[in-house]
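In the design runs reported in the main text, the only information available to the sequence generator was the tokenized backbone. The following block is the verbatim input for one such run; it is reproduced so that readers can re-run the procedure and compare outputs position by position.
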């Protein structure tokens, strides 16, 4: 039960408070408060800290303070369209207004399409007073996203010759996905693939599984290359069985979603 609510004005104070036992750190809290039985006694609200509310646009990157709401992120003109779609499809506006970008990465059940898009795009995360920007992929692989207060999230812009595309399967168009995939592809001026990654959700016990599509790199980006790329995918995945879908179903849908995402990327580059 929450017994104390603190709204610090300085980052250093918030970081000290966050270290205390039985403390939850929020900036909006809409996703964190999905359950009513919260095992915390102190709530630290980050929304009044200036260092956590900035939005900066650089030549190739967007920087969002960790307390920026998802709605402010969505309203940023240079945010890749695939990420905008991920935020709109299953997250209502009232939740976007009351959930920070930092919170969206640290909750127990993060929005899957949003997280997959960020992972495929190689977003970065900076914690507290640390000057290091950690690749989101590494944090996911090491289960290290909850190591501290997220100070900033860095999202690359989509440059010419690049594409970020996504696909999903769900029970209804408005449902959370059973399986979803985001794919990032970069080609040179002759349409040869230089870099390709795919991020999958719903295919393992991990929230996101990122696969480097090495067999696509170095090849002309076309339908034949896509067909060859998706062939080994079922052998690389070990999805769970649950009421939403069997392991075989999830494996097949992951392949279908990757094909669709790559075909969308092919149209975009």
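Verbatim output:
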């Amino acid at each position: 039960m929450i017994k104390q609510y603190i709204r610090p004005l300085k980052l250093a104070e918030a970081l000290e408070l966050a270290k205390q036992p039985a403390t939850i750190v929020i900036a909006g809290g809409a996703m964190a408060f999905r359950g009513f039985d919260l095992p915390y006694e102190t709530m630290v609200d980050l929304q009044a800290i200036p260092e956590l509310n900035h939005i900066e646009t650089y030549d190739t990157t967007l920087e969002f303070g960790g307390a920026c709401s998802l709605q402010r992120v969505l309203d940023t003109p240079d945010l890749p369209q695939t990420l905008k779609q991920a935020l709109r499809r299953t997250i209502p506006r009232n939740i976007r207004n009351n959930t920070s970008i930092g919170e969206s990465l640290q909750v127990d059940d993060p929005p899957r399409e949003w997280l997959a898009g960020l992972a495929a795009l190689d977003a970065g995360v900076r914690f507290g007073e640390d000057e290091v920007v950690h690749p989101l992929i590494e944090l996911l692989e090491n289960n290290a996203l909850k190591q501290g207060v997220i100070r900033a999230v860095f999202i690359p812009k989509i440059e010419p010759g690049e594409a970020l595309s996504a696909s999903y399967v769900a029970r209804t168009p408005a449902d959370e996905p059973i399986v979803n995939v985001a794919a990032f592809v970069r080609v040179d001026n002759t349409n040869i693939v230089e870099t390709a990654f795919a991020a999958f959700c719903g295919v393992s016990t991990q929230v996101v599984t990122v696969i480097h599509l090495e067999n696509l790199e170095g090849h002309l980006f076309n339908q034949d290359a896509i067909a060859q790329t998706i062939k080994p995918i079922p052998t690389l995945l070990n999805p769970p069985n649950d009421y939403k879908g069997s392991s075989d179903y999830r494996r097949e849908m992951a392949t279908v979603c990757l094909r669709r995402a790559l075909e969308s990327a092919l149209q975009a580059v």
